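Attaching the record inline, Q. Sequence:
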Amino acid sequence: MAKSNNGHVTRRRWLKSTGVLGGATLAGCLGDGGNTPTETDGGNGGTPTSTTSGEESYTFGFAAMAAPSPWHQIWMRTHKWYAQDLGHEMLVTNAEFDLARQTNQVQSMINRGIDALIISPVSSGGAKQLVENTLEQGVPVMTNNSTVFSQQVPLFVAFGNYAGAYLAGKELAKRINDLYGGGRVIDIMGNQTSATAQQRSQGFTDAVEEEGLSVATHVAAKWSVEKAISKTTAFLQKDSDIQGIYGAWGSATEAARKALERQDMLVKRGEDGHVPIANIDATPVTLNNIRKGWADVSVDQPMPFYAPLTIHYLIQYLEGGNDPGVLPETGTEVAAEDLSFKPENPGGPEGHEKIWAEDYWAPGEVQPFTHEGTEYHRLFKLKPLAVTPENANADYLWANFVDLL
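Structure, as predicted:
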């Protein structure tokens, strides 16, 4: 097999028989028009492209759960950009949190002849049949950002929600203890029916309690800024003896800021009476609040690396004949020097490659992905990044690339 000058082995895409592709259906297909892939960053309508080696490239599919925010939109675009950088094609769809829609979209991509699928499933339990049916049709599957409760997936790429929340709790506690020698905090939670939200609350709670702080209240905001503002404000009206606020997602910093402002408790960092704010996900609004002095720290997911890491290992998996033995073993650690995501021949928009300039994802830890005591598949867990006033303007932060959307 020849190698392209990107360093990745390429091969001619094998043609799947009509017996595999023709007429295949998946459980839950509604046939409501949701089976047409949504191209989010151009593309060539499914026509095979060529690698720099002159051989036919892979055609990948990426089935995203949704794109309700700039975070999700950059996440989707990085899949397209990195595939273009390597000379491959990436079909991208947006399920808008609708499992039936995602099922239709995946089947449509299979019908168009994708070589492999990357999916962030809408539902970890509900998408199990979708993923396993895709595998039965001869299409390898890997997951990132979210995964399925299936043992047939060879690799899941994500960051640890508990670890990220724990880091946010430690960073917030340090600032509160420096200012006040202890205190009480508010935890603005996401939707607690979600494992992600549960982990983001529990990790934070464990961290601040270890540092001698107490959680005065857990605000059930269900990822809603409006609910977060109203419920946090209502609590502060009754109990203003609060030394810090944590939010489980990006816009929660704005909710914390507005709630403090309504109670005349909003004070800039460095001034007497400042209430430190921390959160997960360094969104544009979060970075703006850090720069203006309202917020103190945001723990960012290494989201820009979800795509290149998944694509890298998916290519290895394909070239290895779908042998999971070519993937990093559970219990191992992958260092930054082991991988490089700096393209020799960038194919995306000008300047996009700077998003991979700083290897802040490393080291990556390969662990078993478990849920309620059951082990499912390998998790390549990336390291969270603490964003503070010192690095809030860094060129590599994903929020500084929203002008490319």
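Residues 1-55 have pLDDT under 50 and may be disordered. The longest helix spans residues 161-180.

More tomorrow.
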